[in-house]
Structure formats: structure tokens, C-alpha cells
Amino acid sequence: MKRKYFKILLWTSLGTTLFFFLFFNDEKTLSSFLITLLLSAMYSFVLGFGNGFINEFLNRKFPWSEATRTRAVLSIISIIIGNFILVYFCNYMNYVVIQKTATIEEFFSSKYGVTNWFMINIALLISAFLHAKSFMEELKKTSRKEVVEQKLIAKSANAQFESLKNQLDPHFLFNSLNVLSSLIDENPRQAQKFTASMSKIYRYVLEQKDKELVTVEDEIEFARTYCDLLKTRFEDSVDFTFDVAREDYQKYVVPLSLQLLLENCIKHNFATSSKPLVIRIFSAGNILCIENNLQVREQIKESSGIGLSNIVQRYSLLTDRNVFIEKSEDHFKVKLPMLLDKPQVSSVKPEDDSAAYKRAQKRVKEMKSFYMNLISYCTVCSFLIFINLYTSSRNQWFWFPVLGWGIGVASHAFQVFGVGDSWQEKKIREIMNKQKK
To answer: Is 243 helix (H, G, I), strand (E, B) or coil?
Structure first.
């Protein structure tokens, strides 16, 4: 139990002690006050800890979000049985052991039946409040989780959109077609090879566009093909080095990340035969590095950095490991984390998630309505029993509203947790399946 919960029970004990001592106790002595404090503490802590233990046990074994119907049925059963036992234990200790106003035979006779019933109703009220509070807290947690999931879905869709926009720079296609056009007349065989490489690149883009992760081997093979095209275009002005360990080939990286980084190297640096641009791709531990010598090209407009931010965003959806960017006076390096396993990514479509959220929202409203009905029943019935017994204990008219409203609450419980719409829909599907056969 939490320390805060212990303090609440302690203050409840002191409050009830003062109330009963000042208004329902004729002897204003220290011993009378201590006895009242003892009894109040016993009722508060036994009922409080008992109901709290039952509630926490059910929270661990049958959470509201995972087993709603089972949890609701078990909550109702545990509220009735648990409080029946706890109240009888407290009343037995009060009247038989501590105050000694009744014998064991008298306690279990009809003489104390009304008192026990009244205390059970009070305990049911407290327990119903605790379970309703637990339900509302679980509802808040689930709502926060669903909001986060919706944000992740939107963020993932945005990342995929940006990825598609940045997979291949239009300038690369334009320049490659220019190179191909010149090769057709000068070197037809090289032009044919160049065309085959372009076909591989675009086929890889189409194959990987919907994947979350690809193996390092596939990405390196694609990068080699891409570098061959760049080498044909820039000749001796660009030099590529691959130094990735074979044992890292079965690890995973974000698809097309190397292409975006290679394109950035070409876009932001000048390359000549006298000052070639040297790009090195290598592995170090669980990191895939892309490094180039810095030869900054003068830009007409400042770079937006969409390519790098897109890679960082896609990694953030898959792992807690970060993409690191290092820049010095003469070198620029990007470090991509290599993942050992593919993370479990939810494949639920936004439409399906939205429909499920609406059904869950409707379900929550039904359960909330039932618990409000249950709390109202316990509160009002306890008040009616107190008024009836206080004014006229012989004429026990409180049974009529207790039983009448109780039947209504039981019917509401069966409708929400037992034979509601979900049960009807299930039966309809069973009948339709039988008819199809």
C-alpha cells in the first residue's frame, strides 16, 4: 500500500472518532475516546486495506484495459463477498471481543442482522468508490496511450511521406539521363550497363519503400550500384571506399538511408580531378558510418536538411538509439545505428484503430454509467436504511427500495457485462455462419 493511502485511512479514523465521540457518546472520558478511536481505526484500516488489497490484486491479474468484462464481474463478486467477510469480522471484534455487548449466539442471530446489513452497505459504498476510481485511472492511462499511438501513427505516416519525397533527388535523375544520352553515342556498351544499374536502383526503391528496416547487406549492395552510377558521372572526381565487416551484413538499418547520405555528399561538396571527393562507408561496432572530406560548395540557398532529419525521424520511431552527426574542419561524418533485431512495429491501420477507438469509447460510457448507478445505489440505500432504523426500527420499509433498485442494478450489470450488445452480435454471427454452412 502507498504511504498516501495509509495517511488517508489515518485521517479517516480520526475524523470518524471525533464525529461519534462528540455526537453519539454520552461519556466524554479519555477511556471512551480511546475505545472510539480503536474501533474507528479498526473499521477504517480493515475495510480500507481489505478493499485496497482486493483492488490491487485484480489490477495486477485482470487489468481493466485487457479483461474488462472479466474484471467487472470479479469486481462485483469480490465487493459483495469481501465486504461481507470484513464487516462481520469487524462487528464481531467490536460487539463480542472489545465491548462485549453480545455473545457469539446473539451476534449471529437476527438481533444484529440489521446492524450487519447496514455496515455492509457502507462498506459496499466505499469499495464501489475504490473500484470506480481504479477504473477511471485506468481509463485515463488508456486514453493517454491511445493519444500517443495516434501521434505515432501520424508521425510514421509523415516520415514515410518525407521518405518517398527524398528517396531519389530529381536532379540525380536529370543528370543521370544526361550522362546516359552522351554514353549512347560514345560507348553503347557502357550506356547499356548504366541503364541496367539505373533499373536496379529504381527497382530497389520500389521494393523497399514500404519496409521499416532492411539488412545491411541489401543496403550496401544498393549503395554500390548507386556509387557506380555516380562514378560513371563524375569519373575520377569522386572516390568511394567500402569497409563494412561481413559479420555486420545481417544487421538492420533504415532503407535508402545510404542513398540519401551519398546524395547529400555530392550535393553539398564540390569534386574535381585535382581535389576528389572521398567518401568512405565503414562499420564500427554496431554503427554504420558514412564519412567524406569536407569541400563545401557555395549554395545559392541554404540547405533545408530534410534528408538528414528524415533519417533521424525514421530511426526515432524504431529505436531509442540516436543518429550522430560529426562535423570538423575537414571531415563530415554521419553514424547510423545498426539494429540486431527488427522491432515489433504495430501494423494497425489508422482506419481500424479509429473504429476500435470509437467502440472502446462507447464501451467506456456504458461502464461509467453502470458504476455511477452502483455508487448511487449504495449511497442512497445506506441513507434510507439509517433513516428507517433511526426513526422506526420495527417497520422496516427500506427493503422495498433496496430490493427494487437492486434488481435494476443487477439488470444493468448483466446488460453491460453479461448479455449486452456484444453478446447479441456474437449470437447473430454464429447463426449467420450456421446458415452459410
So the answer is: strand
DSSP class per residue in 7-22? HHHHHHHHHHHHHHHH
d(CA 380, CA 121): 10
- Global pTM? 0.45
Strand 277-284 and strand 238-243: pairing? parallel
Q: What is the tens place of the pLDDT at every residue in 164-210?
A: 555 555 656 666 777 777 778 777 887 888 888 888 877 887 777 66
Count other Cβ atoms within 10 Å, centred on residue 199.
11
Determine the residue type at 96: V
- How many other CB atoms are found less than 10 A from the CB of residue 405? 16
pLDDT in tens, 302-315: 555 566 777 887 78
Closest CA to 310 of 205, 196, 167: 167
Question: Can you tell me the distance from the alpha carbon of 364 to that of 368, in angstroms, rounded to the nearest whole number?
Answer: 6
Domain boundaries, the chain: 3-153+350-371, 167-337
CATH topology of domain 167-337: Heat Shock Protein 90 (3.30.565)
Residue 398 C-beta-side C-alpha neighbours within 13 Å:
22
User: Is 68 within 8 Å of 112 (Cβ atoms)?
Assistant: no
Ordered alpha helix ranges (H), 235-345: 257-268, 306-316
Task: With H, G, I as helix, E, B as strand and everything else as coil, classify residue 327.
Answer: strand
Residue 294 CA to residue 163 CA, distance in Å, equals 25
CA distance 209 to 226: 16
Block residue for cell numbers 448511487:
376
Q: How far apart are CA 43 and CA 217, in angstroms?
A: 69
Intervals of the chain under pLDDT 50: 345-353, 419-420, 423, 436-437
